[in-house]
Amino acid sequence: MFSPGVLTAVVLAGGRSERLGMATPKPLIGLGGKLLLARVADTLKSLCSEQILVVRPGQGDDVPDLGIALGMHVVSDVEEYEGPLSAISAGLSAATTPLAFVVGADYPFLSRGLIIEMTRIAQIGGEGQAAAVFIRHGDWINPLHAVYPVATWQVLTSDALSAGINSPSSLMYRVMEEGIHPIEIMTEDEAERVDPRLLSLFDVDTLDDLGVAKRIIDTRNYHRVRPDLKRGGI
Fold first, then answer.
1. Is position 108 within any domain?
2. Rounded to the nearest 5°, which phi and psi values hold at 175?
3. Who is most buried in 11, 70, 94, 226, counting CB within 10 A?
4. CA distances from 139 to 174, 188, 228 (A)
5. Which of 97, 118, 116 is nearest to 52 (CA)?
């Protein structure tokens, strides 16, 4: 039985949104009547006992204030490092639950069912301890939509940063190859049984992505108003 008491949400929001090419930070972009960060937080609040928002040191935009308004605990990246691994490490250091669901603030279509299933797999674990759980999507294993055992991975991320490793993927593959800690990889087929279109893994990186996200929301709203209308017609 899933319990929110085992899970912290760690939401990464310190990126500079350079690929998007907009002055507005991604978490503050409106999408379907909600700011992107609010969409993420609204999905996670029923699943997690706490939500931690990780921002850059000295981040001067309105993202930290929005996080506070949404009831999130706002923390900064490790000062001397940059990038998502530093953000993950900072978030895990602040977490108070056994497991953490780590995700970027630019994932507008998170699936509650998929997060619950990933948490269940993590708790089953291996070798008598909880496992980290990642999803293989095509040729890529995504470390920014994943469940991490907090205590172990806080140490692993901190040690990796000290050793000059700044990439979550590099650390993930090292842990897998050296058998340092149990890792479970969900296949696309396994994930699609819970999230049939795998929209949970869709993130907004570019203006094209933003356009796709708006079309997805428009389609969802249309069929919510007229459920008799199917994609092939009435």
1. yes
2. -65, -40
3. 11
4. 17, 10, 38
5. 97
CATH number of the domain encompassing residue 127: 3.90.550.10
> In angstroms, rounded to a whole number, what is the distance separating the alpha carbons of residues 143 and 204?
16
Residue 221 lies in a domain: no
What token pair was written down for 21? 């090419």
Q: Tell me: pLDDT of 164 over 60.
A: yes
Range of the domain at 117: 4-202
How far is residue 96 from each of residues 53, 58, 91, 194, measured CA to CA in Å? Answer: 14, 24, 10, 27
> How distant, in Å, are the alpha carbons of 48, 168, 182, 200 from that of 114?
14, 21, 20, 8
The answer as to whether 178 is a domain residue is yes
Phi, psi of 12 (to 5 degrees): -95, 120
Residue 38 in any domain: the answer is yes
How far is residue 83's CA from residue 93's CA, in Å, rounded to a whole number? 16
State residue 21's pLDDT score. Answer: 65
CA distance 36 to 13: 11
Question: How far is Cα 108 from Cα 83, in angstroms, rounded to an integer?
Answer: 21
Q: Which amino acid is at 41?
A: A
The number of domains in the chain is 1
The amino acid present at 82, given as its one-letter code, is: E
Q: Phi/psi of residue 110, each to 5°?
A: -60, 140
Kindly report, residue by residue over 88-147, the tens digit of the pLDDT.
999 999 999 999 999 999 999 999 999 999 999 999 876 678 999 999 998 999 999 999
**Strand duo 50-55 + 73-76: pairing:** parallel
